[in-house]
Amino acid sequence: MLFNSYIFWAFFACVFILYRLLPHRGQNYMLLAASYIFYGYWDWRFLFIMLFSTVVDYFAAIFIGESRSPRLRKVILIASICVQLGLLGLFKYYGFFAHEFSALLAQMGLPVSLPALGVLLPVGISFYTFQTMSYTIDVYRGQFKYTRNFIDFALFVSFFPHLVAGPIVRAAKLLPQLSNPRVRRAEDFRDGLYYVTTGLFKKVVVADNLGVIVNAIFQADPAQLSGLECLVGVYAFAFQIYGDFSGYSSIAQGVAKWLNIDLTTNFNLPYFATSPSDFWSRWHISLSTWFRDYVFVPLARGGRQTSRPRTYLTVIFVMLLSGLWHGAGWTFLAWGLFHGLLLCVYRFFTSRRYWFFKRQQEARAVPFQSMVSRLLKMLVMFHLVCFGWLLFRADSVSQGLSMLRRIATDLRATPFAVSALAMVAFYAGPLMAYEFWLEQRDDLLKLTRVNWLARGFVYTYCAFMLWFFPPPVSNVFIYFQF
Amino acid sequence: MYSSTSSFRTELKVLLLVVSALAVCELVVRVFERRLTVDVKAPAISKRLSEAEGQRVLVLGNSLVRDNVNTDILETEMRAQGVRSIHIEKVYLMNTIVNDWYYAFKHHFVDAGRLPDVLVICFSYNHLEDATIHRPLIARYYSSLRDIPQIFSEDIPDFNGRVEFLLSRWLASFTHRTDVERRILDTLIPYYRESVTRINDALTDEANKRRGVYQPGYRRFAQLLRMAQNRGVRVIVVAVPVANQYPINPQIKSTLEANVVTFVDTRKVEGLGKTSFVDGMHMNGDGANVYSRALAHHLVDYLRPPSTTETFNSKWSRLIASHGL
Hints:
The complex is a heterodimer.
Chain A: H1 6-21, H2 24-40, H3 46-66, H4 70-107, H5 125-140, H6 150-158, H7 171-179, H8 188-219, H9 227-258, H10 276-280, H11 285-299, H12 308-326, H13 330-351, H14 368-393, H15 397-409, H16 415-441, H17 452-468
Helix pairs in contact in A: 1-2, 2-6, 3-4, 3-5, 3-6, 4-5, 6-7, 8-9, 8-16, 8-17, 9-14, 9-15, 9-16, 11-12, 12-13, 13-14, 14-15
Chain B: H1 5-31, H2 33-36, H3 42-51, E1 55-61, H4 63-68, H5 71-80, E2 86-92, H6 98-110, E3 118-123, H7 135-141, H8 148-155, H9 159-170, H10 172-175, H11 177-188, H12 192-211, H13 219-229, E4 234-239, H14 250-258, E5 262-265, H15 285-303, H16 312-323
Parallel strand pairs in B: 1-2, 1-3, 3-4, 4-5
Helix pairs in contact in B: 5-15, 6-13, 7-9
């Protein structure tokens, strides 16, 4: 049940009507049932895994919260994390590691065939396991009071708008909204409409239309492509993955808004970032803050001043984990390693006050000279991010490197390259122009605060594009696989 | 409903603006619908054919019929070879296959009571294999409400597809959205057609890879043959030439044999070469002229009136038997 499908909107219309008719507790029961139907629509067997994950962390949090023995609390927390990571490892990583381990043993002259599980990856497992882990860790740290209400907790884990592709919402933000009666706010319909409209535009118009160009280029043998074609393929993928993922997050936020529930903002105009750290404060915010709070900070000795090499190693480790989170493959690890190195290089140079890497304190409303320097930094950062996307999208590291070689040596403007570049500009250009306007205004919801007629024209443009520019094939959201 | 209804009312105004704009688009598309598609002409063609004198022949297929079969030349050649009273019309549905032709024939000829005497089905490659119907076209031009149960149960099992079918049925702008898209992009994007060909090839490769090895089915093709024959329409199936030679699945031949249908193999025609084709599939004017004359030569035996002592059916049986099917 994809957000860009009619069945989802028929489903949501039913949920919305029932939601408005029911009292608070009834709403929660109904939302839980709806979330399980939504998830089971993919494959009902996945429900058991999610239910197991929910039950484990529900009781783990209660035991942790009620136990007075620090040692017991720690043991329960570790057990809970092991279960969650075990599920993730079993379903997501076993195949990859088993394959690589067998290959390694074979190279050492020890041919061993590890059993293949042949299981499907449950949709969204990376998202909900991280969400439940953050809950038990927060309870362990005393940052959040556990809940005894199983329905509320199960709904926290499975709340359908963000269940399969995030954002990963912390218990402190979402659980109180579920436990307490929701307040109907005047702006919820307006904001929800904004999020849903822009989200559908990003997903259907930008991501899916560019997806076919990306596939055509990345499926081809790099030797048969010109460098410019490879480059356009990378640009197209940069906008595809952004449109796809931020589009999903935006629709999730919009749908939740219509249920008077606030989700975390997951993207903050990431392609206008001026540095690696700025990029990671704008891209997949809920995941990067998760890794920051639950991995980086504890490893960097609780955030206290630590040695520079240790910090760099921790950054690289965290980014490798982030790469692995996205998928079990060498290309994802290479992507994580690249971003880790990028962050370390940036950290190294900013500490030495090189001009180009100086932190931009005054991000917005800057004079012309600063504006030029900021645009230059955005351009450089965008291309560094694109290099990362090349590794991320390539079927193998060698394919990524071959394409990079083509980009470096052959920038012939073939008809296909020119045409594909024009299509990237046609689909993604207006979105980037609009986001540049938002960036200048420093307000993600600025459009909801302008004259209704102007908003109406923007929505009309989105509706026109959605109506008349359907993608050749309807794609599932890329982030479902993560 | 809300603590403050003004925000809600403002957004309703926004939505009203959007809906109004889309309504204007719908009106514009309806005004220009005749320019956007040839499919609107199908009722007039079936009417013309039903009112014609003599043998009424319908040539059915897709863009290959549009570009490769010249009905004027066919008629002229037929007359020159002694088939005096004949009227030939062609109905072609762009980007379609036999599943679509089935509904086109059913809607405009069978259900409308305007049956031709002879139905000539032109195909190449995999056009006779069972596949997904062209929903927008079938919804708007080639089906009626009575067909919907059959279409939903046999051709569109999924909810999203059914919604799109109904939207196409009621809204011209939805039916023709890809036509509008193509025209806009063709104007704005340099080398658009070349690029789309390349993208289409990549998509086809991907789809084939995903599909893997498969056994094609010919259920709908057989249904089309039976639907026509049960109503006394003689059917001729023609393999049309394209730039490269293609194989004919044995299942096609067995389906033809099972239904006692004439098969005319024109995959190789003297005078046609690679240069006769614009894109490997569709012929240029000269190629179409050469092919149409050759097709007339192949068909004439089947369309020549029987002698006074021979009925149509007996002549037909004789011809089929002599064809060796």
